[in-house]
Design a protein that fits this description.
It comes from Ramlibacter ginsenosidimutans. With about 375 residues, this protein is mostly helical. It has 2 domains: about 5-150, no CATH class; about 160-365, no CATH class. The protein has 14 helices and no strands. It has helices at about 5-20, 50-70, 75-80, 85-105, 115-140, 140-150, 160-170, 185-195, 215-235, 240-270, 280-295, 300-320, 325-335, 340-365. α7 runs antiparallel to α14, α9 crosses α10 (about 240-270) and α9 runs antiparallel to α12. The longest helix has 27 residues, at about 240-270. The chain is globular. It starts with 5 loop residues before the first helix and ends in an 11-residue tail after the last helix.
């Protein structure tokens, strides 16, 4: 029996909701009013349909994942007479409690306004997601997915599946290099220098003798190729057969192109959705797919070892390039515009996803493989 991926996905999504709800985490103050007073406030004078839809849609995945997680809990199935209904109710209460906590804490943030309407919309979104999970479970769709997972993936695939599910959202945040996740060195250095300003520890930081230079086309090609190659290798470590590996590789590259185009459309407008698809990027995508096809018959542990090498090379080359001024303007638009809530969902994923994969693979190769190492 495999372990469900819904639990870690629900936890990750809850953390992202907390980030999006309390961003930018500055200016905390006490308004000297009861934190629960917003519960009896009147209907807000100013509201938009964008806020209404965002509050509902933002909690639907949480309700769905929580309900699915509780459905898989042995305690719920043992003690509840109707486990699916019980799981739906528990998921609804958990999502509503999370929303209540976020709205209460927003009382202390100057850039946020606590709202009973937002609480109701969040609760409605949680309920819709939980009911959807219950309906799909009753219809047999969840069981069908379980059978599909058993046919395609090994039993210890939960960690890799969670990371693969987070890869498309990570690509939605605009990257300086297409599929180039994990470019954090420049921002990390700047943030650390600002934090250590006016302290003696600032002198301990290494000072660059030369400024970071933009990537040459060959380096950009390599970063794009490895950006497409890495999720393919991650899937190879848990897929069961060579044929399924081939389908997965093609689908992964196509998905990466589609999500990057969507990110460009959100950032610069629909007319510029494909502006990023330059000659080095196109060659990099083809090269990445070719590398994935060459690795089809390699054992899983060999794929994991190659994945470690690809991650180290990718992050090393990518973090030697600065973000362009135009790219910085794009980030500012995301971080200060109407994508401010979505910023928490994609920005941190784009920064941390490859490092999470690195930790996962290191833990994976340190354990003995209990399944056949060669794909069928």
């Amino acid at each position: 029996m495999h372990k469900t991926s819904a639990w870690p996905l629900a936890g990750a999504y809850a953390v992202l909701i907390v980030y999006a709800s309390l961003y930018p985490f500055t200016g905390w103050r006490d308004q000297e009013i009861a934190p629960w007073e917003f519960l009896v406030a009147h209907w807000p004078k100013y509201w938009t349909w964008f806020d209404v839809v965002a509050n509902v849609l933002g909690y639907i995945p949480l309700g769905f994942l929580l309900a699915l997680s509780f459905m898989r809990r042995a305690q719920v199935r043992y003690f509840a007479r109707h486990p699916n209904v019980a799981a739906t109710a528990i998921a609804f209460l958990a999502g509503t409690a999370l929303s209540l906590c976020m709205e209460t804490l927003q009382n202390y943030l100057p850039s946020r306004v606590a709202s009973n309407v937002d609480l109701g919309l969040n609760a409605a979104g949680t309920l819709v997601g939980a009911v959807l999970a219950c309906v799909l479970e009753r219809a047999g769709a969840i069981a069908h997915w379980s059978r599909f997972r058993d046919r395609w993936f090994i039993s210890e695939a939960r960690g890799a599946l969670v990371l693969l599910a987070l890869w498309p959202p990570a690509l939605l945040f605009p990257a300086a290099v297409p599929l180039g996740l994990g470019q954090v060195l420049e921002r990390l250095e700047n943030g650390l220098a600002e934090w250590l300003q006016a302290t003696p520890f600032l002198e301990w930081m290494p000072i660059r003798e030369v400024e970071l230079q933009p990537l040459v086309p060959a380096a950009e090609l390599l970063c794009v190729a490895l950006g497409a190659f890495i999720p393919c290798l991650l899937g190879y470590t848990v897929l069961r057969s060579v044929g399924r590996r081939a389908l997965f590789a093609v689908g992964t590259v196509v998905l990466g192109v589609a999500v990057t185009a969507l990110s460009a459309a959100l950032s610069w407008g629909p007319s510029h959705a494909w502006a990023w698809l330059s000659l080095p990027v196109r060659m990099g995508l083809l090269f990445g797919l070719l590398l994935a096809l060459l690795m089809l018959a390699v054992p899983r542990r060999g794929c994991a070892a190659m994945l470690l090498i690809a991650l180290v090379v990718h992050l090393s080359v990518l973090n030697q390039a600065p973000a362009s001024a135009y790219f910085s303007d794009t980030l500012q638009a995301w971080e200060q515009g109407r994508f401010i809530r979505f910023n928490g969902l994609a920005q941190w994923l784009g920064w941390l996803w490859p490092y999470a994969v690195l930790v996962y693979v290191l833990l994976r190769v340190s354990r003995p493989d209990r399944t056949p190492t060669m794909p069928a």
